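Reopening this one. Same input as before:
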Amino acid sequence: MKTIAAAIVIVCMCSAAHADIYVYKCKFGGKASLLKLDDAKKTLQWLGKTYRISDQPQCPRLGWRAEKGNVAFNFCTATEGMAQFQFGSSQVQCDQQ
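Same output, byte for byte:
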């Protein structure tokens, strides 16, 4: 019984330590660039900038609101592996890596 209890504790500890990190290849301005979203740290890194993120329930599937200073955008996943967002006047399309 002690062995089972110890195994359950170890599994729970390992599960809690798992962080969701998503990496996407995004097309913007005729070039491809990587976007990294770290849900545990609540950050999104793109084009050399780090944005703070919060959940965005207005996205059809999963989504986050990215903000840094006066720049903000909604990063929404459309289907598994694909995402998009409006950045300024440009629509950015992304594929998960």
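So the earlier flakiness isn't reproducible anymore. For the record, The radius of gyration is 17 Å.
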